[in-house]
Amino acid sequence: MLRLAARSLVYLFTLLGFLLRPFTGRIRWAVPGWVTFAGNQLARLERGATAIRKPYLPYYY
Question: Which keywords has UniProt assigned to this entry (predicted)?
Fold first, then answer.
């Protein structure tokens, strides 16, 4: 559900940018780092805690 809302917003902003391009020129948009982090965390929550695996870290003693 959240992913659908996020994709809808991306589509709307893409369409808005396309319509405003003759007036604003080509603007290269970048997503802030915290938005990417929040999106990854939401995707992780949707997958569930069982899908989160610990990486293999060999211990050398």
Answer: Plasmid
Q: What's the N-to-C CA distance of the chain in angstroms?
A: 47
Token readout for 51 is 């899908």
Q: Is 56 contained in some domain?
A: no
User: In the chain, which residue ranges form alpha helices assigned H by DSSP?
Assistant: 2-24, 33-47
The domain in which residue 25 lies consists of 1-30
Structure tokens at 24: 């604003």
* Span 3-29, pLDDT tens digits: 777 778 888 888 888 888 888 777 776
Q: What is the pTM of this model?
A: 0.40
Enter the tokens of residue 7: 């994709």
Residue 19 located in a structural domain? yes
